[in-house]
Design goal:
globular; mainly alpha; cell membrane; Sulfite_efflux_TDT; 470 residues
Length: 470
């Protein structure tokens, strides 16, 4: 063994290594693998012992670990509330669209409606819970409101609130209103007006903040920019669904407002697609942390296609049922011809928009595969961006299959719907685990303030101007 080998005397200076010692020791060690393994195991045990001792010392020196359990729970709840961002409402978007897809699936089976309604109920509970936490956040820390609004990224997630709420309104019209009668249909109509108001404020207000209060650069443009403008497209499509359960007079007003909402959102989305296309060409695909945002351009295409088709379909059904025209002074026969013309024109428009969405879907999947080939993808809350854009593209596909009586569209819509529901289930489980660990509760706008709410937030204008003398 190594320690019993006697070496010749060395007359060199103290502390200087004897020539050949390193070579002879290495040669001897290599001839005794059992001793080498024993030494490695001993070193490993020593390292583990030191690590455990360091962990014990760090816990002993950490005052928060010495606090009572109730105090630690309160501190953790405070941290969660303080770091609860609007992006959490993307959970409602993904959960809500999953319940809608299962309800509208072309190939139904017994019990599928019950599953859809259970997910719908879960979505309502989550939405109310998220609203309660958000109200607590901005009530306890009032400066967090302007801090969030003036952040160039976090403020854009306000669109997820309106779209998450719209999925609840849709299921109220599709499932609850037929079961609970006309009075609940009016209640659903009121909810839709609230969602429409929020959507139009977000669609116009957020670009205003981008133009005046946010620092922007082309390389920082992501798919998140689509969230505010898509909210009105979603509200428009929701109006087409709600109109089918309303009395004719209410339905006509709803359809007119829905067309206006569609017009405020979809053209802006087309402009943003050009900007985003330019950003991708110049600065290439987004980093792994936000690569899922590449799916967001699919949202305005899917919902734009479904919305224009659903609104015209609802108009056709309402005119046929009531005989009342959308335009004042028209006879019943003229009203029906007018509705048929709008419906016929909407089908090729919906197909064109659907085709544009297909392009963005293929591009986004290609980005994801190409990046996954060379880089690790770490889960974060942004992964909910997989669900809603794909889900609304599924609704457009299913609706086209219904209107065109196309088996190909129905089958494709069913396959994509099942893929979306599977993605929703996987992401929901990952989110639940991340929420329990607390890792998903992180506010970028708060981190930029040092981790604590600021005492005052100045509405700093980012454009040049001359101060008024008065």
């Amino acid at each position: 063994m190594l320690e019993y080998i006697k070496a010749p005397e060395w007359s060199g200076r103290e502390g200087q290594e004897r020539p050949g010692d390193e070579v002879s020791t290495r040669q001897h060690a290599s001839s005794h693998p059992s001793e080498r393994i024993a030494i490695d195991v001993s070193c490993k045990l020593d390292k583990e012992g030191h690590k455990k001792k360091a962990d014990r010392d760090s816990k002993k020196n950490n005052p928060s670990d010495q606090l009572p359990r109730s105090v630690r729970v309160v501190k953790e709840l405070r941290r969660i509330t303080l770091h609860f961002t609007p992006s959490w409402f993307s959970v409602n978007m993904g959960t809500g669209i999953s319940s809608i897809l299962l309800h509208q699936l072309p190939f139904q089976f017994r019990g599928l409606g019950i599953i859809s309604n259970v997910i719908f109920g879960l979505n309502v509970l989550l939405f109310l819970f998220f609203c309660a936490i958000s109200i607590a956040r901005y009530t306890v820390w009032p400066t967090m409101g302007p801090t969030m609004l003036f952040h160039p990224t976090q403020s854009l997630f306000l669109g997820t609130f309106a779209m998450g709420f719209a999925t609840i309104v849709n299921m109220c019209a599709l499932s609850a209103s037929p079961a609970w009668g006309p009075q609940f249909a009016i209640f659903t109509w009121v909810l839709w007006w609230i969602d429409a108001a929020f959507s139009i404020v977000i669609c116009i207000g957020l670009p205003f903040l981008q133009f005046t209060r946010h620092e922007q650069s082309l390389d920082k443009v992501t798919g998140v920019w689509f969230l505010p403008v898509v909210s009105t497209i979603v509200a428009a499509a929701s109006g087409g669904i709600v109109a089918e359960v309303l009395p004719p007079a209410h339905a006509r007003l709803t359809l007119v407002v829905s067309w206006i909402l569609w017009g405020t959102g979809f053209p802006l989305a087309i402009l943003l697609m050009a900007l985003y296309f330019h950003r991708l060409a110049v600065f290439k695909i987004p980093p792994a942390s936000v690569i899922v945002s590449a799916f967001l351009p699919l949202g305005p295409c899917g919902q734009g296609s479904f919305g224009i088709l659903q609104i015209s379909y609802a108009l056709k059904g309402i005119v046929r049922k009531s005989g009342q025209a959308l335009v004042a002074g028209e006879s019943g026969e003229d009203a029906m011809q007018f509705a048929d013309a709008i419906y016929a024109a909407s089908i090729p428009v919906a197909l064109v928009i659907w085709g544009l969405g297909l392009v963005w879907l293929v591009i986004a999947v290609s980005f994801l595969v190409d990046l996954f080939w060379v880089s690790k993808l770490t889960f974060n809350l942004g992964w909910w961006g997989f669900t809603f854009p794909l889900g609304v593209f599924c609704t457009a596909t299913v609706q086209l299959g219904k209107e065109l009586n196309s088996g190909a569209f129905r089958i494709l819509g069913t396959i994509l719907s099942l893929v979306e529901v599977a993605l929703w289930l996987f992401i929901a489980i990952k989110t639940f685990i991340g929420a329990l660990s607390g890792k998903l509760f992180f506010s970028p706008c708060l981190a930029e303030q040092g981790g604590e709410p600021p005492e005052f937030v100045a509405p700093a204008r980012k454009y040049q101007y001359e101060c008024r003398d008065d």
